[in-house]
Amino acid sequence: MTLYSKRSVTEPVNAMSRTGRFVHSYIITGDKGTGKKTAAKYIAMQLLCDSKNACGICRQCSRILRDQHPDLIHVQKEGRSYGVDVIREKVVEDSYISPNDCERKVYLLSDCDGWTDAAQDALLKITEDPPETAYFIFTARNRSFFLPTLISRSMVMDVHEADREECAKALREHGFEEDKIKEAVESFGGNIGRCIEFLEGNDKLMRSAEAVRKCTEAISMRDEYTLAAVLSSISSDRNEMRDALEMLARAIRDSAVMRCGKGSAIGCAAKGSADMAERFSAQKLLDMYEAVCEISSACAANCNTAAAAAVLAGRLLN
Asked: For residue 106, what pLDDT is reported?
């Protein structure tokens, strides 16, 4: 397993591996495509590896990489989130059962964005006083989706996108052509997951990227009608809207960085980001960034996406 720009995960986990003393609960956060699930697999390999160092080639590591290890439990959602009954039965109760093939069991709950407080409450006792053999890994886009009490019982690690050279190297390893790699990296920076989706022709991602480019143009021109129309066009698909809002937040963040003279655009709307940086103050860009993040979180919590799109259009240009 090759890990790109994951030192925030590998360094503390490797240190724990050397001592043989691991914490029992981990929260991994980061933008979509930055490798949260890859980082989670690495932690699982450190915990279950025959040679105790995530070798990637032993029987245990090989099964983890193939998603076939009986002691790495991928907990499944009920619909869009984790239900209380699933948490109690598939995690809490199951964690007291002995491992199948190793000395430890690892429970992976991916994409915890928007899950309920009740589901997290069901985990508090088990994460505070876990069975010796049970370990828990949670992933989400940011830590705001977790209760403070669950955060306090966990090691929280943020993963970030790779630098552009590492991203291009990873894409070459996947067999993509050099000219296509350049186009992907120019659009999505060092976000390897996003670049791969783009190069594999993910229609929703390409629509979202185009919507973000149109949004940044409309914001720069203070064209609220066009902005509202573009946001409305993506509001029918909740996941597509969240993807687009995440990319729009990145574009606005790029603008703020450029406005302060501390970097260049790395998102999918470089021209729009540059135009916004010229037309808006740093404080206004910060306000817009916070508005987009707030609406994105509301979408994860099952709000009315059409109404959210209309509210966001007004907030961005008021």
From this structure: 98
